[in-house]
Design brief:
By secondary structure, the protein is an all-alpha fold. It is built from 6 helices and no strands.
Length: 139
């Protein structure tokens, strides 16, 4: 496998990025959080694998800058996608699993998801990753 490459297929929770020389192993805190998220849903396992890959891959300075901006950059980023996902999952019209909720509870659940998406869009601390990416650009 070429340096920095990842298999084109994915089996949630089963793949690990290649071990790159010079890339330290995951710290205990990140490793523990990823372990605690295991098995919730195949989609969450894929997110875990993506986080693990990003943490352990031998990224160039340019790729690091791009990844930071993509995680939490200008609003079209992973933060925004997660906020919109929560909004969708809490919407009974878009999540059939919530069909059993009474009308008042369904409305409250949907509103909580909308608030989450709004707060992520408006208040997520994107300035830190933007500043880090700008500083890396000087390398």
């Amino acid at each position: 496998m070429a340096k920095g490459s990842y298999p084109w297929h994915h089996v949630p929770g089963e793949l690990r990025p290649p071990i790159e020389v010079g890339v330290p192993p995951l710290d205990d805190e990140l490793d523990g959080v990823l372990a605690d998220l295991a098995g919730v849903h195949p989609g969450v396992d894929m997110i875990r694998d993506g986080i693990r890959l990003l943490a352990l891959d031998a990224l160039t300075a340019d790729k690091t800058q791009t990844v930071l901006s993509t995680i939490a950059g200008t609003g079209t980023d992973v933060f925004a996608a997660l906020g919109l996902l929560v909004q969708r999952l809490t919407n009974p019209d878009k999540n059939p699993g919530l069909g059993g909720l009474d009308a008042e509870t369904a409305k409250t659940v949907e509103h909580e998801g909308e608030l989450f998406a709004y707060e992520v869009a408006e208040f997520a601390p994107r300035e830190h990753t933007t500043e880090a990416a700008a500083l890396i650009d000087g390398i």
